[in-house]
Specification:
The protein is of the alpha+beta class. It is about 50% helix and about 20% strand. The protein is built from 14 helices and 15 strands.
Length: about 475
């Protein structure tokens, strides 16, 4: 049995009259739990206000990490005027614990008869909501950061691997240059012939035609191999197909080979083609390294734009297209993994908005990420449009072909902690954060949804 002294040990009850504490004692039930026992599972009803007399109770957040810790004496569970109906996260006894439970059926009577006691519990609810919201918001931010970090790591991995691979190949390739130089030195070429080959080769490199289809390239490679075989060309004793493959990479044709033959003669043809091939391989490796480096630079620029790390924290003019494109770049891995077609239609003459770019990027991240999660595994589509409305507002729509939002819950999706995702997959704060940011910008957001088509419309004033 619990005693009045047990309740007086709670600092929250220091201003509560003893008769009200005795009222509480007459209605509570003792409930003990061993270490490790789940007191309330996530998604299960919460029917009691609980006073922790001894031990420690934790509320586990996503990934089973401790989000809130209660040490005796502490108040948790259902509180007066709270809309809590079920546990959002597991409530676990971290040690052997002893508690007192007051069923929700007594709360209405308490609010009528015990003013100071009710006031104490309401203050506890206010403090708890503030602490809980802060904790979950931090988890939501960390989860978003984790998703972006995972995508960024994947995006960076490919160009980094390409640079390492091509740098090693270039190193090996350059070691063979002295032998090829000896071949060139033995050629009987005039200055005019050398200049003609040089000009022709570098003009080809500077004016590379468009990429051919696989079928066209295969046909070209076969034609080049036949031509080389007909002229008994086998550079360095290798198969003519290797040289033909290199030439095909740069869209060389039989006419190009005929031109070289005409310029240098049959006796010098093999040596010249070896030199041409050597330059082409070097060019390809350098170009590949350059493209991979540019890809990394683009990603870094997107990160810089997304975080606005080089700018102040105040309001500033925002390029809407830049923020959305940076977000799409950082979520590119998820877009490709789901085979989603993204269409962006933002007019180039759209006026800049006045606001906080970092906050708006959170909006784009949540809306795009939610849309990707709602789409089918393959064949999803996302369309992003922006238009100027009455020269005062910018309307931006995000339309996906996902499963849609049932009519019954459309009004709830912006409520804090409401989520349609499974336990551990969403905190229910994403759209709450979105709505808060948009209100901070004096804007509005609405949703229209039916199976196969969901559209979020964000309205932001141009002047902020």
């Amino acid at each position: 049995m619990a005693t009045l002294a047990d309740l007086q040990a709670f600092p929250q009850f220091k201003n509560v009259p003893d008769e009200q504490l005795n009222w509480l004692l007459d209605r509570v039930e003792v409930a003990d739990f061993p270490k490790g026992r789940v007191i309330n599972e996530a998604g299960k009803p919460v029917d009691s206000l609980r006073l922790l007399l001894d031990g420690q109770i934790n509320i586990h957040g996503q990934a089973s990490e401790d989000m809130i810790t209660y040490l005796a004496p502490a108040v948790l569970g259902l509180l007066p005027y709270s809309r809590m109906s079920e546990a959002r996260f597991p409530i676990v006894a971290e040690t052997d614990v002893r508690t007192l439970a007051l069923h929700r059926d007594h709360l209405r009577e308490m609010t009528r008869q015990c003013y100071e006691l009710t006031e104490t519990f309401v203050q506890q609810m206010t403090d708890r909501v503030r602490t809980f919201a802060h904790q979950v918001q931090q988890e939501e931010k960390m989860a978003s950061l984790g998703r972006l970090s995972a995508g960024l790591a994947h995006e960076l991995n490919n160009p980094v691997a390409a640079i390492v691979r091509n740098a090693e190949a270039l190193k090996t390739h350059m070691r063979a240059t002295p032998e090829r130089f000896k071949v060139i030195m033995r050629l009987a070429l005039t200055d005019e012939q050398t200049d003609a080959v040089d000009e022709w080769l570098f003009e080809k490199l500077d004016n590379r035609p468009k990429t051919r289809s696989l079928l066209e390239r295969s046909s070209l490679e076969d034609d080049l191999t036949d031509w080389l075989d007909d002229h008994s060309i086998s550079p360095n004793g290798s198969d003519a197909a290797d040289l033909a493959s290199t030439l095909a990479d740069f869209n060389f044709s039989e006419d190009d080979l005929e031109y070289i033959l005409e310029q240098v003669g049959a006796a010098n043809l093999t040596g010249v083609l070896e030199w041409v091939s050597n330059n082409l391989v070097t060019e390809k490796l350098v170009v590949d390294i350059g493209e991979a480096s540019n890809r990394m630079a683009t990603l870094v620029a997107s990160i810089k734009s997304y975080t606005h790390m080089d700018r102040g924290a105040g309001k500033e003019l925002i390029n809407l297209a830049e923020g959305i494109q940076s977000t799409l770049t950082l979520l590119g891995h998820k877009v490709r993994a789901r085979n989603v077609t993204v269409t962006v239609d933002i007019p180039t003459d759209l006026p800049e908005l006045c606001g906080w770019p970092g906050e708006l990027n959170q909006v784009w991240t949540n809306l795009i990420d939610n849309a990707l999660d709602a789409m089918p595994e393959k064949g999803g589509s996302l369309t992003i449009n922006s238009v100027l409305d009455r020269n005062q507002f910018v309307l931006t729509t995000f339309t996906d072909n996902g499963s849609g939002i049932p009519d019954a819950i459309q009004k709830k999706i912006f409520e804090p902690f409401f989520t349609t995702k499974g336990v551990g997959k969403g905190s229910g704060l994403g759209l709450d954060i979105v709505q808060g940011v948009i209100k901070h910008h004096n804007g509005s957001i609405k949703v229209q949804s039916k199976p196969g088509e969901t559209t979020f419309t964000v309205c932001l004033p141009v002047e902020g």
